Amino acid sequence: MAQVKASQAAEVEDANLRADALVLLAAVHYSLGNFATELIALRQAIDLAPSDHHVLAKAWFGLGSLHYRAGRVAEAEQALKCSAALTHEGEPVHAAVLSVLALLPLARGTPRTAIAGLARAVAGNRRVGNRRGEAHACYHLAIALDQAGMHQQALDALAEAEQLARELGLAHLAALVAREMADAHRDIGSGEAPERYRQAIAELEAMGASAGLLHAYHGLAVQLRRENDKEAARRAAEKALEHSESGDPAFVALVRLHLALLSDDQAALRASLAQALSHPHRYYRALALCYAAAGDPVAARRHAKEAMALIQDEGFEHLLREEQTLAAPWLGTPSQRPPPAPDTRLERPPRFRLYLLGDLTLEGPEGSRSRVRPQALRLLAYLAMRRGSTVDPAQLIDALWPDRGNEMRPTMQTLIWLLRRKLHERLVVTHTSGYAFDPDALVWVDVEEFSRSLRGERFEECISLYRGELLPGIEWADLERRHLENRFLHALERLADDRCEAGRSDEGIELYERIVAIDPLAENASRKLVACHQKAGRHDAAQRFRREFAQRLEQELGLSGD
C-alpha cells in the first residue's frame, strides 16, 4: 500500500513533492530489499534538484546509506557530505548523516575507530529526539563492538536498539537486531545462539529481508561449523549465498570463501581468497586469511603470517579465541569450543570487585579496599570498560595522558607492573598488539552487573548498583558516562511505569521526579509524571509541573511546551 501511494505521489508536478515522494518510495524499496529500484528512485529525486534543501538532503542521505550497504565507501562518503552540507546541527537528518559517516571506518574493517564516532552518533540522535536514528546508531554501535571483541557491551547496545525498534514499530530493524544478538551470543559461547539464529531467520524471511538473511545464514553456518556439524554448516552457507545480490561484495566474498572451506574445494578456496583480499575491509580480510590457513595446507604458513599481522595490528585477538578450530593447525592452540561467557565463570566467588559507578574502588578477596595508586586504578578501569578487546598502547596513553604522547610509555608499563605486583594477579594481559583486561580473571565489575540486571529487567537491582555517575571527572569516560546515565534513567522510567500500573502512584511519582531532577528536559518522563499526578487526583500538582516544564522548554530550546 505504501509503495502504491508513494508511486502515485511521485507523479505530481511540484518538484519538491515529487522528490519527497521518491525518497519515500526508495525507503519502501529498501525495506523490501529491492536495492536496485531504491537506487533509481534516489537518483531521480536528486536529478529533480528540489529547491527544498531538507528534501534534497534526505535524498543524498539515502544514496549515501545505500552506497555504504553496498560497500562503496568512497561514493558513500561523497553523498553523505553533500547531505551534511544541506543540514544543520540539531536537525534529525543531520544527526542521521553523522551516524552513517561514523560507520565508514566499520566499512573499512576498523571497528575500534568506529566505536567512538558511533557512540557520539547515539548521543547526538538522542539529543535531538531522533529516536529512529538513535535505534539505528545503537544497532551499528553493537556491530562495531562485536567486531572489536566486546561482545557483552554489544549485547547492551543491542538491548537498547531492540527496545527502540519495538517501540517505534521498526520490524525490519528489530529482525536485524535479533540476528546480531545471535552473533554476539555465538561469540561468547552461549547455548542460546542456535535458537536465536532460527528466530531471527524466521523474522527476516517473513519480511523478505534478503540482506539480513545473507548475514543470518552465514552466522548460523559459523555456529554449526564450531559445533563440528560441517554438512549442516555447508547447507547454511549455501542458503546465505542465495541472497548474495543484496550484500556488501566484501562480505559476499567472505561467505564464498567459507563455503569453499566447508566443501573442501581447494580451487574455489583460492579463487575466493583472491576476491576477498581485493576489498579493503580489514576485519573480513583477517577472517578470510584464517579460513585460507585452515583450508589450504600448501599455503597455510603464509596465510597464517598475514592473518596474524592483521589480527595484531587491529586488535582482533578475540578471533583466535572464537575460531580455535581454525587457529589450531598453525598456532598450536587446543582444538576446542570457545570458553563460556563471563557470566558463567562468575558463578564462582570473584576474587576482586571493581566499582566504576561513583567512587573508583577495587576491593580485594577479603572485601578490603586494595591500596593501588590512583593512576594504576584508572588504567585498570579503562581496560575493564573494554573487557574482551585488546587496547593499543598508544590509545591507552592518549586516554590517560592526553597530549603527552609516547613519553608516557615507561610510566604506563610501570603502572601495569605495579598492578601485578600489588594484586598478585595478572589482571592485565599483554598481547603483541597491546593490553587487555583478563577475560578469565574472576573480577566482578559493577558496570557489567548493571548491564546484566538491565537486560534481565531487574530494575530495582539495576538502580541500586548505580551509586553515582561513571568515573566522575575522568575525561576519557565522557561518552560512556552519558550512555550509562541514559540507561539508568531508562531503568528508573521502567520501574516507575511498573509502580504506576500496579497502583503505587506515590512510588511512581518519586521515581519520575528522580528522572526529571537528572534530566529536566526528559519529555516522556515529564508527561508520565503529569499523568500520574492527575490519576492520583493531584490536579494542582499536575498543572504546576506542566507549566514548569513548558518554561524549561522555552528557556533551554526556544520551544513551546503546549
The overall average pLDDT, rounded, is 86
Radius of gyration: 25 Å
Unreliable spans:
1-6, 331-346
- CA-based shape: globular
- Biggest sheet strand order reads 2-1-5
User: What is the number of helical segments per DSSP (H or I, 4+ residues)?
Assistant: 29
Largest beta-sheet details: 3 strands, mixed
Distance between the termini: 34 Å
Q: What structural class results from the helix and strand content?
A: mainly alpha
Total beta-strand segments? 5
As a percent range, the share of strand residues is under 5%
Helix content: 55-70%
Essential attributes:
mainly alpha, 562 residues, single chain, globular, disordered N terminus, 29 helices, two-stranded antiparallel sheet, three-stranded mixed beta sheet
Please outline the helices and strands.
Layout: H1 2-9, H2 15-32, H3 35-47, H4 53-69, H5 73-85, H6 92-107, H7 111-127, H8 131-147, H9 151-168, H10 171-187, H11 193-206, H12 210-226, H13 230-241, H14 249-262, H15 266-276, H16 282-295, H17 300-314, H18 318-322, H19 324-331, H20 342-345, E1 352-355, E2 361-363, H21 374-384, H22 393-400, H23 409-423, E3 428-431, E4 434-437, E5 443-445, H24 446-455, H25 459-465, H26 478-501, H27 505-518, H28 523-535, H29 539-557
Parallel strand pairs: 1-5
Antiparallel strand pairs: 1-2, 3-4
Helix pairs in contact: 1-2, 2-3, 2-4, 3-4, 4-5, 4-6, 5-6, 6-7, 6-8, 7-8, 7-26, 8-9, 8-10, 9-10, 9-24, 10-11, 10-12, 11-12, 12-13, 13-14, 14-15, 14-16, 15-16, 16-17, 16-19, 21-23, 24-25, 25-26, 26-27, 27-28, 28-29
